[in-house]
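The data are quoted verbatim for reference:
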Amino acid sequence: MSFKIMKIVMLGHSGVGKTTYMASLYAVLQQSVQGFTLKTTVNDDHKRLIELAENIRQGNYPLGTDQRKDYDFYLRYQGENVLKFSWSDYRGRALTETQDSEQANLLLQDLKQADGIMIFCDSFLLNQGKVRNSQIGRMISLINHNLKELDHPLSISILLTKFDLLENIPTQFVKPFEGLITTISCSNNILGGFIPVGCGVKQINIPIPLLFILNTAVSNHYHFTQKLLVKHKLEAEEFAKNSQGFGGNINWIVSKITGEESNHEKAINAKAKAELHKKEWEFIKAPCESLERYIKKIPVIKSNMTIDKYTEEILAIKNSIISQRIENLDPFAVFD
């Protein structure tokens, strides 16, 4: 497979649950969720995340991240590697540190190169109106600044953590995200959505934010490979056609004199490339269709939606929440 390594960046204030989410997600995706699993490229990372996840399930939560930590994962489908991605976990203070800080500089660089961004927001603080405490304004400012020169597809998952602790949701629940909503809805390169999660003893919607983001890379690769397949198939047919008859014989003779490829040889090479892309396209087809089928169920940010409508959709999710335990069959059932 010729996938570009996808880069994912997590943003959130200290204590919002970034490390908790990553460990919980990794543990959940050790067993198949709609055919998808996760695998680390480093065995020590596997051991650490599994240990953290087990502690979380017992109610013991990890301390905040002290330094930027990078993890490399494989998204797997039916036991086969589909996509390799890098995931950067930053300490919460990196959001408020000056540009003289090494961590802050690394964060800015990573945001410019990111293919996916996970924004972690404490639902409990948000519900209490403590927007400043949750650093939402700072996160949105950083993201909007780096999106000005965006030249590649980007997916943004807005994770509403500790969602299971909420009893009521005010109509202006997502009002602090208004600037980011505008940016996303006006861009052809950005896909974003609000996804409530819970990463404690009671786990809610754990796999969805990651699969939402990875869908962009998988889908793009699927469609790009499909275009290459069609392109080389048509080239092979055209070269084969031009290798026939009197003109084809002349071309063959000239190629032997000049050392250039004949149309017959070009047809063979183009057909070989088409076959290669066909195998790649067939390999990615099933996971792509699986992801796209479920992505339609997620309430994404759209240009024609009001703040109240987003809150309404989030409230509908709250009213039909299903705990995401490993044995659950369909983690997307909450969006039905």
